[in-house]
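re: ur question from yesterday

yeah so i grabbed the chain u mentioned. its 169 aa long if i counted rite. heres the sequnce exactly as i have it in my notes:
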Amino acid sequence: MADASDRSPSAAPRKCIGKSHENGDCPDFLKDFVRKPAPVETPAAGEAQAARWATRPKLASLTNEEARLYYNYKLDTSLTRIVQRIESQGASRQAIAERISDLRNVLKIRTMTFMADQAAAARLPAMRPFEYYVQKYTVQGFQGDALWNRIIKGALPPNPEVNAMFGIK
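ran it thru and got these structure tokens back, copy pasting raw so excuse formatting
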């Protein structure tokens, strides 16, 4: 659950956006998705855009480029912190790989809802389940922790081909 400082006294507690939990509170590894991160300036967007990313955009309010920059920002900040938090809690590499793969898909879905151009959102590459990456990297010879580490490593950077589709280098 978000800290009391993250909302006004009269606001209802924020509910978890991931899988349902017994009491609706977010487990530690999902808190970065419900808490508002501090604004981070990026060279591509400047201060105004970084401040905008500190709060959740409205549905269908972002241009394609803004949506992609938002997605890249969340990958870099939220998912990276979640990996670090899960690691500090002693989770197995496999558990971390599964969680990050799932959360990346949650972030993709969320970002697509923020896009004003829903036709462009529909043309984005299909989301892949965790099992797809297990098979993909197993065929390449990865196994054990090396397999899980490869899946984690692959989940954190944005796809450069999708960035290029939206004019982002």
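noticed a couple things. The chain has a mean pLDDT of 79. also Residues 37-165 form one domain.
anyway ttyl
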